[in-house]
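STRUCTURE:
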């Protein structure tokens, strides 16, 4: 599943907001998400988590004008892909507003 969200922030600010979002998710969803692991580099990173017993992994890349998220969903969640993608897109748009 690929999500591309445009932004008008500096790459540094966009990256900072993405990292903060993962910290917020860890805190707010600790009952639903287990084993959230993140690895960050200058303008991107990777993540792995277990949600409701399902393993989800992916990458985040902060480009000068967009944030690209590539997530690998297990087969059992593919029927919810549209709803999951829509929710992530909505949150990303709110997060990356200048």
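SEQUENCE:
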């Amino acid at each position: 599943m690929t999500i591309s969200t445009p932004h008008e922030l500096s790459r540094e600010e966009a990256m900072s907001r993405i990292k903060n979002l993962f910290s917020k998710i860890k805190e707010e969803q600790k009952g639903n998400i287990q084993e959230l692991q993140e690895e960050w580099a200058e303008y991107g990173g990777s993540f792995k988590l277990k949600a409701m017993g399902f393993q989800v992994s992916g990458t985040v890349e902060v480009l000068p004008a967009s944030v690209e998220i590539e997530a690998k969903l297990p087969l059992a969640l593919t029927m919810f892909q549209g709803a999951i993608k829509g929710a992530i897109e909505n949150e990303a748009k709110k997060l990356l507003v200048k």
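REMARK: The helical segments are 11-28, 81-95.
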